[in-house]
Write a structure and sequence with these properties.
Its cofactor is Mn(2+). The strands form 4 sheets. An 8-stranded mixed beta sheet has the order 7-8-10-9-13-17-14-15, with helices on both faces. The protein folds into 2 domains: 2-134, Leucine Aminopeptidase, subunit E, domain 1, CATH 3.40.220; 148-469, Aminopeptidase (3-Layer(aba) Sandwich), CATH 3.40.630. Helix 1 crosses helix 2, helix 8 (320-335) runs parallel beside helix 11 (413-422) and helix 10 (366-378) packs across helix 12 (457-469). By secondary structure, the chain is α/β, with parallel strands linked by helices. The protein has 12 helices and 19 strands. Helices cover 32% and strands 20% of the residues.
Length: 470
């Protein structure tokens, strides 16, 4: 899609009009009829014809409570109607706030995502030039909306990609290509370098796979000072069989999505670089495939880690926290960031706790928690804080190692995983863990099976923007 800015609306050509619920009066002067039988309800749209036979699309913005997810109404509208558009269509934007306008562009861009990338017959994507009508200078909003929508679509493409294609090395190649296109530094540590540097937990998880693990380090540092403001660490398990503690076969094909946290980290670094934010960030992805093989690590093993701390393996299906532990330790020792955030599709426990409506948020820093929570509500990527009491630490004590990777109990699973990660943070004062297992992948009206949601791009990018402005 192409988004351009014009200053005057041509009433004789096709155009899009938006309206809040029961507020048709605000745009009545642009309508050819008195009563178009449309009330502006959220997720609704309606077609009327102008005096010259041109199409006028009415799009409902709903009520104040719908402002956080305005993208949805534009995405649905575009998805259902774009096949009827011509090469050019106008979008009347005078009655939209800059934030609503940006959300509109994001929604239009999200409608361009095609999930069937690996079908033999590809779906044709109809391109169009959408001309936004406004007397104000809106170029910045159009550009940011487009870049954000593109980033969401890109990470959805990664999460939805099949695991025989999306190996750890594939993620590294994606990051390398992105870094060249968006002007940031990308370093890939492969097997020998991982051994040399001591990424022992990452190597242990990847031992059972023919597809060897990698660690991706993306650096966007426009500020002249060397200090890193924010480091992001993402879990990049490209397929999770559970290892020797093997998962059941039901829905096992969905374990291609176990690199959702990595996808967010990759997408956010690219987006921040495109937006040219004045902030130094690092994105670290610890990528491996958790497979079953004669060389697979076992329950009962004691492995080392980048931090030098030893880990007793109780369950090889608690592998995501192992690769994150190495990623977190590397971020702290190499970059010493002011803020440290890790993201992972880590536990089924967080889904049982919060369902598919919010990510689990874990931190000892209340300022970070309050900020992330407020941003989550504003952009409909909600998080909910769960406790990090010292009481939970007893369940991770091991007789034979510094810590064990699983408590073996059917309770407190998400908290147990967060406490494990906290053990490797060196008591970092501004660390946060986000368990996005329930929100990064799920049902959708745009796909027959579960698919990627793109959750996290707006949440984390807007947290970074907030810090950049300060």
């Amino acid at each position: 899609m192409k988004y351009t800015h014009i200053k005057e609306l041509d009433l004789t050509k096709d155009f899009i009009l938006t309206c809040k619920k029961d507020d048709l009066g605000a745009i009545k002067n642009l309508l050819p009829i008195e009563n178009p039988n449309f009330d502006g309800s959220f997720l609704t749209h309606h077609l009327v014809y102008g005096k010259k036979g041109n199409k006028i699309y009415l799009v409902g913005l709903g009520e104040a409570k719908n402002e956080a997810n305005l993208e949805d109404t534009f995405r649905k509208f575009c998805f259902e109607t774009k096949k009827y558009w011509g090469e050019n269509i106008q979008f009347y934007a005078e009655n939209l706030s800059t934030e609503s306008l940006k959300k509109g562009v994001i929604g239009l861009e999200m409608a361009q995502y095609v999930i069937g990338a690996f079908k033999s017959t590809k779906e044709e994507i109809k391109d169009a030039n959408i001309k936004f009508v406004s007397a104000k200078d809106i170029q910045k909003e159009l550009e940011e909306g487009q870049f954000t929508g593109e980033a969401i679509n890109k990470i959805k493409g990664l999460v939805d990609a099949p695991p025989n294609i999306k190996t750890p090395e594939y993620l590294g190649d994606w990051a390398k290509k992105s870094s060249k296109e968006s002007d940031y530094k990308c370093t890939i540590f492969k097997h020998k370098e991982l051994e040399k540097k001591g990424f022992d937990a990452v190597l242990a998880v990847g031992k059972g796979s023919i597809n060897k693990p990698v660690v991706i380090v993306n650096e966007y540092t426009p500020k002249k000072i060397k200090n890193i403001d924010i480091a992001l660490v993402g879990k990049g398990i490209t397929f999770d069989s559970g290892g020797i503690s093997i998962k059941g076969s039901t829905n096992l094909h969905y374990m291609k999505s176990d690199m959702g946290g990595a996808a967010v980290v990759l997408g956010v670094v690219e987006l921040v670089a495109k937006l040219k934010l004045d902030i130094n960030i690092v994105g670290i992805v610890a990528a491996a495939e958790n497979a079953v093989d004669a060389e697979s690590y076992r329950p009962g093993d004691v492995i080392n880690s980048y931090s030098g701390k030893t880990i007793e393996i109780i369950d090889t299906d608690a592998e995501g926290r192992l690769v994150l532990a190495d990623g977190i330790s590397y971020a702290i020792k190499k970059f010493n960031p002011e803020y440290l955030i890790d993201l992972a599709t880590l536990t089924g426990s967080v889904v049982r706790t919060l369902g598919y409506s919010a990510a689990g948020m874990f931190t000892q820093n209340q300022e970070m928690a309050n900020s992330m929570s407020a941003i989550g509500y504003k952009y409909q990527e909600r998080v909910w804080q769960l406790p990090m009491f010292e009481d939970y630490e007893a369940d991770l004590k091991s007789d034979v190692a510094d810590i064990k990777n699983f408590n073996g109990k059917p309770i407190e699973g998400a908290i147990n995983a967060a406490k494990f990660l906290e053990f490797f943070t060196e008591k970092h004062p501004k660390w946060m863990h986000l368990d996005i297992a329930g929100v990064s992948f799920g049902g959708s009206q745009y796909a027959k099976m579960k698919s990627a949601t793109g959750f996290g791009i707006q949440l984390i990018t807007n947290f970074i923007k907030e810090k950049a402005t300060k």
